[in-house]
Every structure is written in C-alpha cells, then in structure tokens.
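Is this the right way to post structure tokens for a design question? Let me know if I should format differently. Anyway, here goes:
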C-alpha cells in the first residue's frame, strides 16, 4: 500500500502542470532554455519582470524576449557556459520592462538530457536593487559624515591654536610679569628674612603655574609642529618621553606625501602621543619602536610596537587594560569617521603592536606639492 501511494505521488511530481505550479510559487525569477537559446519554460516572477505573459515567452528566443541592449551579451555568455559547463554567479544589471535597470545576483547552470549531454541552461536571479541603492545611500552618507568630520577637525584645530595663543599672550605673560615684580620685591625686602621667604614661595608657585601654562599651551597648539614640521616634532616627542618617563623610542621613517595638512599632522602627533603613553602606563618596558610610512593604498601607516607585558585583546581582565582599550576605542572611532582603522596585536608577556591606518587625504590633507597649509 505504501508503495502504491509513493508511486501516485511520484506521478504527480512528474506532471508538467505540477512542475509549473512549483515554479510559480517561487518569488524569484526562474527560467530555463535549450542549447540554442530558446525558452523551454519560466515562472510568473520572470514573466512579470519581463512584462510579458508566460505563454508569450515559451519557445521564443532569448534575443526576442530580453531587451536588445543586453540580449546579445547574455546570449554570448550563455554559449560560453554551455560550452564549458558548470555554474556561474555574478552581480549585474538587468533591464526591467519599465525601462529601469535592476541590480541582480544572476545564477546560471547547465542541465543534461538522459544521455548525459548538455541540454540547456537553468537561470535564476535575486533582485537586490533596494539593497544596492541602500548601500549607495550609506556610502554617500559616510562621505558626507567624513566631510563633516574633516571640517570639524579643522575648526577644532584652529580653536586649539587660538586658545593656546590667548593663554600664552594673557595668562602666560601675566604670570611672567608677576614673577618679575615679585623678584624685584624680594630684592627690596631681602633684609626681612621671613617676608623674603614667603615671597620666594609665591615665586616658586608661579614657576609651577608658568610651566603648567607652557604645557597646556603646547598640548593645545603644538607650536613646534607649525614651526619646525612633523618629523622635528616627533623627534622632540622622542626626547620628551625619554627625559620624563625613561622610555626610549626608535623611529623608522618611510616616505610620506608632501603637503599634508596641519590638521592631519596634528592628529597623527596626538595619536602617537596617546599610544606612547599607553606604553608608559601599561607595557612596563623601557623601549618602543615607531614606524611611519605610506602604503600602496594611500594610507599613512603608523605602527607602535613594544615588547612589554601585553594583554589579551579578547578579554578585559584588569582596569589598566580597560583604560588602555578605551583609548584605542576612541582612536578607532575617530579613524572610522575619516576612513581609517586600527589593528591591535597583543599577547600576554609578548608585547603589543598597535597600527593606525590613516588616509593621506584625511582632513583634505593632500595638497599640491609645494603648497602651504593653513
């Protein structure tokens, strides 16, 4: 009894109308044709895409159904697939019956007759036009976001320089003047040891404030960068880290594009300073190596490598690592906005390598050779 039921079901499956109904419930366009490019069948989704009835497509040539702008190319591709056999899948544009081009993933494969010879092609395609358009809109939005980020970076750098100059011209000069006056006063009252001692304490406090003001002015405006250039600033930073923290930094320079914007150079400097501070705070090592170069894709590659204690990048096991990763996260988010990215390689007690990939044209950083920045 079971065998009879199975045979009945198989006979239903073999009926042409069942096969056609099966195709018609599939929402993606499907068609099949013989070796001469003549349609042997298709489903409703394909007919609707072509703007025809199924009956108007059957036994017609591909050249008679597909729009002339694409029919010849498709026909030649089909002949090649029939000759070589196998399966193809590619993204392409197909003309819809309404005159618009739709982006589709087109899959085709050969089928065989009872003798094992190639009998024709089966094709199906997935319309991804909406996905493709959404992708384009996303790319356009990203470009606008990158442009806005660049504009904000330029304005932020200008504001930093303005504030640094104001601090230098007002607070810094006032402190220096106050110190001078106190020194003169101290000379006048040098016979009064108690009063002279109090004045010298105030002078010492002013000295600390002057140094703090200088540090703040530099952090905001990086005057050495604007006066001497990028490599000289990195050399200064190298000396600073050695003298203040005992960290020896070795630079390996590659060739960088001419005319990088001040905003981009300032970003690279601050990013490097942040990464070197991570080495000081977390790596527990006295040596770091910095490589700066331009790769073949137009990215400035800045690599900071140390042989310190490292950490597990997949887990955050301590507050120190959390803080370190937070700084890297902030850098990564900034780089995303300008089209760059960060990679981190680290193993416990095997050191850490952080690599920044920064577009050379970030912040409008690619100017004509010989041109000047702001």
């Amino acid at each position: 009894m079971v065998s009879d039921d199975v045979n009945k079901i198989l006979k239903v499956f073999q009926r042409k109308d069942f096969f056609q109904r099966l195709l018609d419930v599939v929402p993606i366009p499907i068609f099949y044709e013989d070796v001469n490019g003549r349609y042997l069948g298709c489903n409703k989704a394909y007919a609707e895409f072509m703007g025809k009835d199924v009956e108007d497509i059957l036994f017609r040539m591909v050249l008679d159904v597909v729009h002339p702008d694409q029919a010849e190319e498709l026909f030649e591709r089909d002949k090649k697939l029939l000759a070589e056999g196998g399966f193809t899948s590619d993204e392409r544009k197909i003309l819809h019956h309404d005159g618009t081009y739709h982006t589709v993933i087109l899959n085709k494969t050969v089928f065989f007759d009872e003798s094992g010879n190639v009998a024709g092609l089966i094709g199906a395609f997935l319309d991804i036009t909406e996905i493709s358009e959404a992708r384009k809109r996303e790319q356009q939005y990203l470009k606008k976001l990158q442009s806005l980020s660049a504009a904000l970076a330029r304005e932020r750098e200008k504001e930093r320089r303005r504030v640094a100059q104001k601090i230098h011209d007002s607070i810094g000069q006032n402190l220096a003047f106050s110190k001078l006056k106190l020194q003169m006063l101290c000379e006048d009252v040098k016979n009064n040891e108690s009063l002279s001692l109090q004045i010298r304490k105030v002078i010492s406090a002013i000295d600390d404030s002057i140094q703090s003001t200088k540090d703040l002015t530099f952090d905001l405006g990086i005057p050495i960068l604007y006066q001497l250039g990028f490599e000289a600033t990195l050399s200064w930073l190298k000396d600073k880290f050695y003298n203040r923290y005992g960290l020896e930094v070795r630079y390996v320079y590659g060739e960088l594009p001419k005319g990088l914007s001040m905003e981009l150079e300032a970003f690279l400097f601050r990013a490097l300073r942040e990464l070197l501070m991570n080495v000081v705070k977390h790596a527990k090592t006295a040596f770091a190596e910095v490589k700066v170069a331009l790769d073949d894709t137009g990215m400035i590659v800045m690599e900071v490598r140390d042989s310190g204690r490292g950490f597990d990048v997949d887990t955050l096991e301590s507050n120190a690592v959390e803080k370190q990763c937070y700084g890297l996260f902030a850098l990564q988010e900034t780089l995303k906005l300008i089209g760059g990215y960060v990679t981190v390689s680290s193993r416990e007690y095997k050191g850490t390598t952080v690599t920044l990939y920064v577009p050379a044209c970030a912040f409008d950083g690619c100017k004509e050779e010989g041109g000047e920045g702001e």
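Format looks fine. Someone answered above. Worth noting: The chain is about 55% helix and 20% strand. The longest helix spans residues 129-188.
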